[in-house]
Amino acid sequence: MKNAFLFFFLVNGLFSFAQIKGKITDEKGNPLPSVTIYEDNTYNGTTSNEQGSYELSTKKPGKHTIVFQFLGFKTQKLALDITSFPYNLDVKLTEESFTLNEVVINPKDNPANQIIKNAIANKKVNIEKTAKYKADFYSRGIFRIKDAPKKILGKKLDMFDEVLDSTRSGILYLSETVSKITFQKPDKMKETIIASKVSGNDSGFSFNNAASANFDFYDNYLPFDVNVVSPIADNAFNYYKYKLEGSFYNENNQQINKIKVTPKRESEPVMEGYIYIVDDSWAIYAVDVNIKGEQMQNPALNLLTLKQNFSYNSESKIWVKNTQTIDFIFGILSINVSGKFTYVFSNFEFDPTFTKKTFTKEVLTFEENANKKGDEYWNTIRPIPLTIEESTDYTKKDILQTKKKSQVYLDSIDKKNNKFHLLDPITGYTYKNSFQKWSANYAGILTGINFNTVQGWKIATGLFYTKNDRENGKYTRFGADFDYGFSEDKFRSTGNFIHKFNNTNKSEIQISGGNRVAQFNEEKPIKELLNSVTTLFFEENFMKIYENNFISFLYQREVTNGIFMKAKVDYLENKPLSNTTDQTFFPKEKNYTSNNPWAPKDYTTPAFEKYNLIKAKLEARINFDQNYITRPDGKYNFSNGNYPILTLGYEKGFAGSEKNYEFDHLKAKIEYDAKLGNKGILSLNAKGGKFFNADQISFVDYKHFNGNQTYIGFSESYLNVFNLMPYYTNSTNDSYFELHTEHNDKGYIMNKIPLLNLLKSNLVLGYHLLSIPNRNPYAEYSVGLDNLGFGKFKMFRLDYVRSYQNGFQKDGVIVGIKFLN
């Protein structure tokens, strides 16, 4: 019996190692990368690596017909009779001879156009053939850096030094995954990662997955940073010109048409290259296209090349994508990085039976110990052999990883980085103990120097201690913030403690307290730096503040998928503050306004009387369309955007120093982004609420709205701000409704306008509404250009805004400087 079991495992091991392998070259002996290799009339396939080497696993010896398919070369179909493994088979491919039949056609007719029209007309039929399937999936990703600079903007770039060669080039990232996927059109996917490998990190989990590789040219758009129009989209003729460059017959005697795809307008989200269409069935045979980074509004990306190869099964009569590669080059600030992702789909099972429980909100999960597979496993399962460079990188970084985990190494790195420098008292200082996973930070004073009319010149800093357990998703942080106002001659401090329990339900506790200065609007619509500039240079002291002594307790967590709860209790002692300085760089005839938002010209009456209050808040955020990825290091949530996000809140003020300060406040918010194909994104943010028993509450506890009187914008979008509304003129302790909506065309209109299309910008239309009782509604209309900038730096936005409240109020231009946020 023992010998029988031994025989079983030996045979099983033989089959596991059963391989056809070799090297593929052209007629001159040059290796051919990314050649598609598959067993005829099966869905068992692979592709060659960058050195032309390949390995194709088969289940048993005997007769096999192997197909070698590569764009621009004649497909070879070889019949083999294999008696033992491994079976070595080197293949030499010859260039394809394309023919273009000489036919008499109307000069206005274009044979390529008719082929594309047929492909579009037959999309539904071809889509339905692969609308439901199960398959095996393999991916490999690699990032390389070349000629890395030693410094950027005067700062050393030494984070990669240990993996770079003498030319400062090398592999930054290398990873692989093996998974099983279940898919149903249009977007239902379930993926289980069986094995995951990251070079230099045996605790790491690759982010490579099938969803990120799901680029379907039968769809109208390919989802990149913006939706890129497919060459066979329903509206493709509005974006592309086509030319039939020739045709050839494959090994199944099917005619393949090679169509050159050229954009009508380079500025639009389009691609350029070739699409191969099978005659009669009008299915996709292969795709080889380029997309520029600026065309998908990713200026750091220079070029992306996407290739797909499809194989044909004469029994099922289905063309199916079996290999895909994505090559890209990006560069910024003298850093040049290239990358490549290779994907292999195999062992398809079409039209499987799915139940309601097949697809859940969990779209990806990892098998236990998926990242602990050894070389023995990978050598049997990996469908694409490693190159010498990749093998060397795994070996080199495995050794380096062991070294990096040692206390001696970590202490030596900390000793170097923990050195104290002359400017650290100003710029800040960090002391780390990497082996014990803690750090202590001093924030410095450079970013804490500001000016306001209450405190005068203010210096702020902080001390913090952090213990971070990334592997288990935990961290603990406690610290203190300090500030001193010179004109006010007052020192304030606060302390805080944060502990995150895990990275699964994001359970977290926060405790804080102390004495601080706070804006009346807790969302802090006025940035301290900007307020300093407007105050000192223009005598516009927009920021209004008060003193807040407090103790706060907060607990938050995800109670179930898609529902995030937050509970907070604050004990508050609020005091009014007054201006203490009239300093300015350029004195003008006008004076600073008072620190009373109610009465900016009243310098004696405080905005409110000192009072005490306890506030309790309960908030629930509901994401109706939340999917998630489960990894051993945590749960990662994301939304497909099919449904809005709803936030509900209740706030109660009680135990006040006077009864009239107590109140109840109900509120709700809806956020939604509607993706309109290649026509941009329509975004909505609607908020409403109602106060009860709040007739005489303090102005501090009113609902304040985010105005803007500086003509400077900070955020990516203006879905939470009124850009011309004074900060506190519409504050309320009654009911309110607030609506912000923007349509960003993502270049859909701007790309078509001569000269303006050179800006490569986005047209943004906005509408903003505020309604409160006993007052005419306040409204803003805006039109602007986003994605402005220089070269690869697109960090600016310009908007023309008009405001109305009982008629026209004012207009102005808002300059958006996004990097200041």
UniProtKB/TrEMBL annotation:
Signal peptide coordinates: 1-18
SUPFAM superfamilies xref list: Carboxypeptidase regulatory domain-like
Annotated GO MF terms: carboxypeptidase activity
One matching Pfam family: DUF5686
Keywords: Carboxypeptidase, Hydrolase, Protease, Signal
Entry protein name: Carboxypeptidase-like regulatory domain-containing protein
Organism: Flavobacterium aquariorum
